[in-house]
Automatic annotation (TrEMBL):
It comes from the Bacteria. PANTHER family: MITOCHONDRIAL RNA PSEUDOURIDINE SYNTHASE, RNA PSEUDOURIDYLATE SYNTHASE DOMAIN-CONTAINING PROTEIN 1. SUPFAM superfamilies: Pseudouridine synthase. Belongs to the pseudouridine synthase RluA family. This is Putative ribosomal large subunit pseudouridine synthase. CDD domains: PseudoU_synth_RluA_like. One of its GO terms (molecular function) is RNA binding. GO terms for biological process: enzyme-directed rRNA pseudouridine synthesis. InterPro entries: PsdUridine_synth_cat_dom_sf, PsdUridine_synth_RluA-like_CS, PsdUridine_synth_RsuA/RluA, RluA_PseudoU_synthase. Residues 25-180 form the Pseudouridine synthase RsuA/RluA-like domain. Gene3D superfamilies: Pseudouridine synthase.
Length: 232
């Protein structure tokens, strides 16, 4: 197997992390787009959610990650014991995650399910690929919120669909590659066709936001239903 070399250097992120809730056990944040979840091996990729929060909450650990370009809700454990409990909830799929996204074009159906296994392919890094043989099961639900046209500076208009995406599994790049498979990539997605249509090249960010996160508090067992409105 060929060795994967990551040459990605993240541009500086000047946006702050918004802390939505905190107690002795966990921190709930709104991650800005353009910030790594975890620091990379390259020293130039030191800035990340974990790097910033570890200065405020020593010993904190990431329970899950959001892609560099994705904004929205993340829960961070303040110690390893809490991390283990929360990770178990993610692996048992008792955590509900809902995303808001803008897709290129107008979807035909108002809702649907994308069921397509996803695999890592070192030859294509950092891209993932749809592969029924070597891939891990991946399933995403989509629901159309609205179809509209975005007026562009040159006088043309760009057809877009606002959707709510609910992944049942948590594969790397799952929503991005599943939307591409649907024929309607997420606007601004550089890896999976979201900058190919005329008028999409200058999109300022990946139009994907983690808007809802529901889980059980590891200590009180109370169900936490967090919501953070999409910025786009």
């Amino acid at each position: 197997m060929s060795k994967i070399i990551d040459t990605f250097i993240a541009p500086p992120c000047h946006d702050k992390i918004e802390t939505l809730y905190q107690d002795d056990h966990l921190v709930l944040i709104n991650k800005p787009a353009g910030l790594l979840s975890l620091s990379g091996k390259n020293p130039q990729n030191l800035d990340s959610v974990h790097h910033r929060l570890a200065k405020i909450f020593p010993g904190c650990t990431l329970v899950h990650r959001l892609d560099f370009g994705t904004s929205g809700l993340m829960v961070i454990a303040r110690n390893k014991a809490i991390n283990a409990v929360l990770c178990q909830q993610f692996s048992q799929r008792t955590v509900t995650k809902v995303y808001s996204a803008l897709l290129c074009g107008h979807l035909d159906n108002n809702e649907g399910v994308i069921d397509a296994a996803i695999a890592k392919d070192p030859a294509l890094f950092p891209l993932m690929s749809i592969c029924a043989i070597h891939g891990k099961p991946a399933r995403s639900n989509y629901q159309v919120i609205e179809r509209f046209y975005l007026a562009l500076e040159d006088g043309t208009s760009l057809p877009l669909t606002r959707v709510q995406l609910t992944p049942e599994t948590g594969r790397t790049h799952q929503l991005r590659i599943h939307c591409q498979l649907l024929g309607h990539p997420i606007l601004g997605c550089d890896l999976y066709g979201g900058r190919l249509l005329p008028g999409t090249e200058q999109t300022p960010r990946l139009m994907l936001h983690a808007s809802e996160l529901c889980f059980d508090h590891p200590i009180s067992k109370e169900r936490i239903n967090a919501y953070n409105a999409s910025p786009f």
